[in-house]
Specification:
Length: 249
C-alpha cells in the first residue's frame, strides 16, 4: 500500500467513527424516550456493538494515519537528499526548484505547514461551532428546572466524551504546533539560513521533526474537501512566498 491508500483508509475510518458517535447519541436519547424492557432489550446490545465499532475505527484511523505519515516522511527525505529510502514522488508533487539538499527539505516542510495550517483553521471553525452548540444547549437545559436529569447526563456524557472534547483538543494543539513550525521556517528563510551552518541545520531539523511529531500525535486526517477548495488559493500564496523568501531564486 502507498501513502494515499493509508490516508484514504484513515479518512474513511475517521468518518465512520463520527457517524457512529452520532448514532450512539441517538440511541442514548432513545433509551430515555422509549422506556421498558423491550426497548432496552435491543437498545443496550446495539449501544455495545456501536461502542466496539467506534473503538475499532479509532484504532484503524491511528494506525493508518501514522503509517501514511511514516511513508510520506521517507518520501520527503528521499526527495530532499536523493536517497532511496522512500517512494519516488511525482515530478510535480513538491513545488520548489531547490537542489537536493537539506534546504530543499526545509522548503518542502514550509509548504506542508502552510497548507496544513490553513486546512486546520477551517476544520477548527466547524469543531468550535459544534462544541459551542453543545455547551449552550447544556447550559440552557441546566438552567431549566423542568429538564429531566437523564437528559443532562446524556448531553454531559456526549460533550465530555473522547469523540468531542479530545478531538477538539488534538486539533487545537496540532494547529498550534503547525503554526509554530511555519513561523520558524519562515524566519529561517528570511534570515537566509545556511544548512552548512550547524546552528541553522539544527534549527531546520528541529522544525521538521517537530512537525512530523505533531502529525503523529494528532492522528487526525486532514479534510480532503477543504484541501481541494483551498488548494488554488494556498498554492498561489506559496508561489508568492517563494518569491518573497527567495526560495529557489
Amino acid at each position: 500500500m502507498n501513502v494515499q491508500h493509508y490516508y484514504n483508509a484513515a479518512s474513511k475510518a475517521d468518518g465512520y467513527g463520527g457517524l457512529i458517535f452520532y448514532l450512539v447519541v441517538i440511541l442514548s436519547i432513545s433509551l430515555l424516550v422509549f422506556t421498558g424492557p423491550k426497548a432496552e432489550a435491543w437498545l443496550h446490545p446495539s449501544l455495545i456493538v456501536l461502542v466496539a465499532l467506534a473503538i475499532a475505527c479509532t484504532v484503524v484511523t491511528a494506525i493508518s494515519q501514522t503509517e501514511g505519515n511514516r511513508i510520506l516522511r521517507a518520501t520527503q527525505l528521499s526527495d530532499a537528499f536523493g536517497a532511496g529510502v522512500g517512494e519516488k514522488p511525482r515530478d510535480d508533487y513538491y513545488n520548489n526548484v531547490l537542489p537536493r539538499t537539506a534546504r530543499r527539505l526545509a522548503a518542502t516542510t514550509l509548504e506542508n505547514t502552510l497548507f496544513t495550517k490553513e486546512i486546520l483553521l477551517k476544520m477548527l471553525v466547524k469543531e468550535r461551532i459544534k462544541i459551542g452548540i453543545y455547551v449552550i444547549v447544556l447550559l440552557i437545559l441546566m438552567i431549566c428546572r423542568q429538564t429531566p436529569t437523564g437528559w443532562l447526563l446524556v448531553l454531559a456524557q456526549t460533550l465530555f466524551s473522547a469523540d468531542v472534547i479530545l478531538k477538539w483538543i488534538r486539533l487545537e494543539r496540532f494547529s498550534m504546533r503547525t503554526n509554530r513550525v511555519y513561523a520558524q521556517l519562515e524566519q529561517f528563510f528570511l534570515q537566509k539560513g545556511d544548512t552548512d551552518n550547524p546552528n541553522d541545520m539544527a534549527l531546520m531539523l528541529s522544525a521538521f521533526t517537530d512537525y512530523e511529531c505533531a502529525k503523529d500525535e494528532a492522528v487526525i486526517p486532514l479534510d480532503q474537501n477543504i484541501f481541494e477548495r483551498l488548494n488554488p488559493v494556498v498554492s498561489k500564496q506559496w508561489q508568492e512566498m517563494q518569491q518573497r523568501l527567495n526560495i529557489g531564486g
